[in-house]
Amino acid sequence: MSLSSRSSGSAATPGSDTPRWTWLPHPHGQPAQPQAREWLAAQLGDAALSLSRDARQRPHLDPPHGEFDCNWSHSSERLLIALAHRAQVGVDLERMHRRPRAVEIARRYFTQAEAQWLAEHADRDRTFLRLWCAKEAVLKAHGHGLSFGLDRLRFEQRGDILALVECDPDLGSPEQWRMCEIEPAPGYLGALAWRPWDA
Questions:
Q1: Are 50 and 121 in contact (CB under 8 A)?
Q2: Under a CB-based contact definition with an 8 Å cutoff, are residues 156 and 162 in contact?
């Protein structure tokens, strides 16, 4: 799996290997799709851009933008949006706060190895959130979301980044996935995951 270092700004433009993403203010309680559509329309130069959703409510760009994929996530009053060319893309954004049940939740929903690693980690709140965001970003890119099962993919710490090392065959192979961890502002963590069509 190829991973980039943690990022704090927009990535490369559409058409490059790395999806483009942005981080925007978002009124709490408001639907995210209109704001996401506006940004996506500007990136693709199509004011009439249309979005649809599949049976699992995953958003898709309608023709003539079939070679692009998009995803977004909002937390508190912020919105993270991504656009990828010839790749499946998923994002997750979470606001940091105390998680006293982090190890308990990990033991129930994560893999045994991840739960053990978290239990031994000094900064459990942050580590739990990094794992959660990474897993959800991959599962949102895949299209099934959390219902697929958080225990059906496993991450390990490699240096200062997380690497996908095992996953259910329905997700493809770990080597096909790319990911970057995002810290768009103090108090927020996110992840951007994508799988190129030709991977």
A1: no
A2: yes
Longest alpha-carbon distance in the chain? 51
Q: Which of 17, 20, 16, 24 is nearest to 7 (CA)?
A: 20
The residue count of the chain comes to 199
State whether residue 70 is helix, strand or coil: strand
pLDDT higher than 60, residue 199: yes
Tell me the sheet residues that pair with 83: 20, 70
Judged by DSSP in three states, 174 sits in helix
- Helices (H), strands (E): how many in the chain? 4, 11
Q: For residue 52, with 0-12 CB atoms within 10 Å meaning exposed, 13-18 middle and 19 or more buried, which class applies?
A: exposed
Angle CA 90–92–94, to nearest 5: 175
- Give the predicted TM-score (pTM) of the model: 0.89
Distance CA 69, CA 166 (A): 24
pLDDT category at 17 given cuts 50, 70, 90 is confident
Going by C-alpha positions, the residue among 143, 142, 144, 168 that lies closest to residue 154 is 168
